[in-house]
Amino acid sequence: MLQEKTMVLIRRSMLLVAFVMAALALPVQAQQEQEQDLIQYVDENTQRLVDKLNEEKGLYERDPEAFYVSMDEELREFVDFRRIAARVMGRYARQTSPEQRDEFVVKFKRSMFDSYAQALVSADDFSIKVKGAEINANNSDRATVEMEVQTASGNRYPVTYSMYKTSEGRWMMENVIVEGINIGLAFRDRFAQEMEQNRGQIQAVIDGWSDAVKTLKLEDEVDKS
């Protein structure tokens, strides 16, 4: 009788262990599936952007404004420019009116295209590979995606996207790190410098933002890294 009771207890203990292990494995499996979905989503958007750039190389030379509109349409569902612009302004965003924030979003996007479009369309052929994604264990609405850009000459450059999930469940890019250079942070530092140089006149900083970006020379910082 004692032996039978012992065997029953052992079986129950084994069932309990199996149940706990299965319960723990389910969230891990679900996260891995979400990460694979995110890899596919980022890869599809990235390859579509590369294809668009290749298609529109001639358009940039003929009609820069049309090129800007075309690329803006391509990126707006994947890159949250409004969120990025707000972070660039940082604590100074509280000093702005809604109209000024809207104006800066437009200025910020345009400055990006004006500063780097020429380099993109004139670059040799390149490929972008999505190497992996990791959803934040403490916040499932945040994730990082590891990329690698390979040029025609064989040079490789690591790129990391910072992503967040909207209330509608869409993943959007909110920052990018290129060879260790945090692009969002570099822009935020420049905004703070411009605020200091303009003695806190935020409208003056917004008006002069395009020139400020041109003098930032992020490509030099990347080359130093």
Tell me what you see in this structure:
Helices cover 62% and strands 18% of the residues. A 5-stranded antiparallel sheet has the order 1-2-3-4-5. It has 225 residues and is of the alpha+beta class. The chain has 9 helices and 5 strands. α4 (81-89) crosses α5 and α4 packs across α6 (183-197). A hairpin with a 5-residue loop joins β3 and β4. The protein has helices at 2-55, 57-62, 64-75, 81-89, 98-122, 183-197, 202-207, 209-214, 218-224, and strands at 126-135, 142-151, 156-165, 171-178, 181-182. It is globular and about 85 Å long.
List the main descriptive attributes of the protein structure presented here.
about 220 residues; alpha+beta; five-stranded antiparallel β-sheet; 5 strands; about 20% strand; disordered C terminus
DSSP helix count? 9
Overall pLDDT level? 84
User: For the report, how would you describe the main beta sheet?
Assistant: 5 strands, antiparallel
Q: Give me the strand/helix succession.
A: HHHHHEEEEEHHHH
Assign the structural class, choosing from mainly alpha, mainly beta, alpha/beta, alpha+beta, or little secondary structure: alpha+beta
Provide the gyration radius in Å.
24 Å
Q: Distance N terminus to C terminus?
A: 73 Å
Question: Portion of residues in helices?
Answer: 55-70%
